[in-house]
Amino acid sequence: MNQRRRRIYEGKAKILYEGPEPGTVVVHFKDDATAFNAEKKAVIEGKGVLNNRISEFIFERLNDLGLPTHFVKRLNMREQLVREVEIIPLEVIVRNIAAGSMAKRLGIEEGTALPRSIIEFCYKNDELGDPLIAEEHITAFGWASPQEIDDIMAMTIRINDFMSGMFAAIGIKLVDFKIEFGRQYEGDLVRTILADEISPDSCRLWDMKTSEKMDKDRFRRDLGGLVEAYQEVARRLGILNENDQGKPSKPTLVKS
Questions:
Q1: 2-85+225-237, CATH topology level
Q2: What would the CATH number be for the domain defined by 86-207?
Q3: What are 206's strand-pairing partners?
Q4: Domain coordinates of the chain in residue numbers?
Q5: Per-residue pLDDT tens over the stretch 189-230
Q6: What distance in Å separates the CA atoms of residue 130 and residue 128, rounded to the nearest whole number?
Q7: For tag attachment on the chain, is the N or C end more exposed, with fewer CB atoms within 10 Å?
Q8: Which pTM does this prediction carry?
Q9: Other residues' Cβ atoms within 10 Å of the Cβ of residue 44
Q10: Are 217 and 203 in contact, with CB atoms under 8 Å apart?
Q11: Do 213 and 224 touch, CB atoms closer than 8 A?
Q12: Using an 8 Å Cβ cutoff, are 70 and 81 in contact?
C-alpha cells in the first residue's frame, strides 16, 4: 500500500505520505528508536503502534478542549490522518521537573521540582543538534513572528496544564515534553496549530510512587523494557485492556 502513495518526508520515527484529500497528510509511525541526534539507533517492534494510539488519545482530548491541532483521525494501528501544515522550525520544550539536558546544563539534581514550569525553544535543525535559542533569535531570523510566539506560548501553557492533570490522575509525573507547531493556511488566513505527536517518545514520564521511567529514556539510558513501559502508559490511559498485556513486541490495543 505504501508503494502506491507519494512519500513526502521520512524522519527518524515517522513517514509522511500525501493524504487522500487536498490539505491532508498521512502519518505512519515507525518502530525505529533513535537518541542523541540519531547516533544511537534500534528497531523496537510495537513502539510505533503504541505511539500512534497514545498520540491519538491525547490529540483528541486537546481537540475537545478547543485547542487547534493537526489531528483529524486514526486510520489504522500505525497511521493517522492530519491536516497539512508548514512546520515552524522550533521545538518547544516544557519543563516541570529538572531532568535530562537541563539538569546537566544547569547543574541541578535530576528530579528537582522547578519553581515554576519553564518553556524553552530549540531551533529545529538536526545538523546543528537542535540548539537552544532565545525569543530574540526567533524573531531576528524570522522563524516565527511575535504574534506566533504569543500564540505558541499561550497554547503551550494550556497543553501543559491539561496534560499534567491528565497524567497525575493515573499516577504519572509529567516531567517534561517537546511539542511542535505549524502554520495552517485557509485561504488568506493563517493560524498556528499544534502538530507532530505527543507520546512517550516526546515526553518524560515517571511513575509517581517509584519514579520508574516510562518514556524513551529507557532506550537512551539502556534500561530496557521500553515497549512494556509504553504499554503501561497506554494501559493507564485506558487504551490497553487491563488483562490483555500480550507479548511486549505485539501489544494488543483496544479498538476505539
A1: Phosphorylase Kinase; domain 1 (3.30.200)
A2: 3.30.470.20
A3: 173, 213
A4: 2-85+225-237, 86-207
A5: 999 999 999 999 999 999 999 999 999 999 999 999 999 999
A6: 6
A7: N
A8: 0.91
A9: 18
A10: no
A11: no
A12: no
